[in-house]
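Work Package 4 report. The design task specified in the project plan requires that, given a folded chain encoded as structure tokens, an amino acid be chosen for each position. We show below one input record used in the internal validation round.
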């Protein structure tokens, strides 16, 4: 496939569950702008995060490497610019790289690969979530668990205000600066919604009357996680303990409202691209860093490898991209790096040819390859062991070091209601999927390395008790806001 080099507008959101979009089949949520983008481009139906939590996912996105390679294990091991990113690659070749919005790296003082970072959000104090480093013998209890349910509903938030500023900054750059560059540019627009708090601007919340919404899937009394590692994570991230059925529906209405708010902001940015006369010379990529459990299995937030947390939207449109196509080839965030490099007209160098990703445009133009492997891993807050995901064909395999595996047949059971990990009839599938995992990483060795790095950082910050006294801050504050720390005392 040969096409003229193009600009790249990469739009990232935060915590957007794949299936909560009209183009992905959701029957209630209104996402007309994402739907239109998918209609003029290619929508990937088996896209995954490489880690279902913010900081590691964004490090993989930026560097094209898996967490096991880049060492950004958790929200306290942020990317610091020391590994070459696609931004570094473009900038070195004379292409303008611009970031507006959330990055969640260590600091704007680092060279993260952008010529300019506009209103960036980085980890708190350059350190991030230190409490999440404590994972054994059990994960540290989180503070502020009641706040998610308590605060859910209509209203204004610092995150909504931040997203409007990001939107306006992107529109201003596209309107007044984009045409000044001779070489193709990359504009990275990174929104923070629909990340919690579950507070939607009132006009968007009003689109989804809570009483009209169904309860989450797998929300019965017998639907709590039964795998011991997942059960331990849910116990640590115990948001659901503070929800009533009425509050669940309010929270879901708020999430749907935030997704539509996000879609409205995306639509305004895409309109600015068209109005600037750049739509025909710019590839647009939309994705998110991970999803949200949204009450499924009595879990909220992310951090697990089930579809609602690990599966992400991935849409590509523009020059050289098939229009109106769905692609079942598994992809992940590491595929963004080669997509951007290829789009601006650069040939991969020797180091890039060793990266695990492939250009999404190349994959969109190729015959579907459902046997391609998508890989994810989790070594972060709430986990008592490493958790790995392998998606290949119809199968989703989840490997928990030291515990039994999980296996799901996504063709027969897309909602992952039936775990086949210990099914005698599926032993050969489990063995084949574990072999695929071991082609990518040594799960035990990587698990040991993650724990060692985390425990060394705990010691540097005064030990376990000091970090427990510090507490946690729920989510990174928007620029200009201070984190509010909370602690949880176990009885």
């Amino acid at each position: 496939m040969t096409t003229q080099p193009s600009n790249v507008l990469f739009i990232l959101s935060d915590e957007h569950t794949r299936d909560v979009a009209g183009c992905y089949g959701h029957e209630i949520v209104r996402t007309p702008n994402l739907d239109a983008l998918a209609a003029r481009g290619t929508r990937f139906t088996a896209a995954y995060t490489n880690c279902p939590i913010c900081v590691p996912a964004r490090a993989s996105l930026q560097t094209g490497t898996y967490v096991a390679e880049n060492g950004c294990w958790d929200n306290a091991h942020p990317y610091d610019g020391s590994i070459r990113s696609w931004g570094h690659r473009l900038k070195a070749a004379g292409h303008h790289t611009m970031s507006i919005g959330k990055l969640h790296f260590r600091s704007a003082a680092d060279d993260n690969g952008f010529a300019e970072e506009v209103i960036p959000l980085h980890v708190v104090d350059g350190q991030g979530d230190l409490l999440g480093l404590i994972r054994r013998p059990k994960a540290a209890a989180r503070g502020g668990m009641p706040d998610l349910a308590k605060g859910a509903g209509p209203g204004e938030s610092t995150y909504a205000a931040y997203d409007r500023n990001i939107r306006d900054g992107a529109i201003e750059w596209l309107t007044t600066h984009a045409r000044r560059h001779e070489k193709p540019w990359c504009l990275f627009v990174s929104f923070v919604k629909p990340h919690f708090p579950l507070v939607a601007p009132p006009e968007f919340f009003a689109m989804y009357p809570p009483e009209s919404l169904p309860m989450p899937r797998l929300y019965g009394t017998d639907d709590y996680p039964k795998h011991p590692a997942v059960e331990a994570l849910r116990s640590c991230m115990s948001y659901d303990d503070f929800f009533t059925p009425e509050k669940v529906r309010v929270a879901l209405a708020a999430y749907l409202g935030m997704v539509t708010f996000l879609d409205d902001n995306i639509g305004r940015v895409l309109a600015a691209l068209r109005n600037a006369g750049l739509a025909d010379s710019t590839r647009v990529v939309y994705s998110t860093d991970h999803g949200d459990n949204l009450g499924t299995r009595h879990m909220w937030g992310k951090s697990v490898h089930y579809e609602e947390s690990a599966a992400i939207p991935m849409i590509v449109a523009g020059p050289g991209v098939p229009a109106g196509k769905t692609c079942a080839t598994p992809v992940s965030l590491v595929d963004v790096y080669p997509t951007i490099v290829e789009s601006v007209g650069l040939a991969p160098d020797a180091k890039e040819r060793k990266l695990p990703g492939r250009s999404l445009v190349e994959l969109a133009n190729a015959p579907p390859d459902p046997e391609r492997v998508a890989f994810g891993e989790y070594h972060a807050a709430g986990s008592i062991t490493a958790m790995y995901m392998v998606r290949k064909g119809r199968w989703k395999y989840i490997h928990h070091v030291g515990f039994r595996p999980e296996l799901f047949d996504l063709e027969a059971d897309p909602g992952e209601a039936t775990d086949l990990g210990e099914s005698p009839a599926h032993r050969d599938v489990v063995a084949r999927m574990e072999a695929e995992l071991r082609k990518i990483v040594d799960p035990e060795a990587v698990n040991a390395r993650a724990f060692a790095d985390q425990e060394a950082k705990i010691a540097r910050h005064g030990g376990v008790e000091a970090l427990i006294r510090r507490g946690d801050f729920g989510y990174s504050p928007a620029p200009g806001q201070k984190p509010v720390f909370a602690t949880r005392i176990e009885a």
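Residues 163 and 217 are 29 Å apart (CA to CA). Validation will be extended to a larger panel in the next phase.
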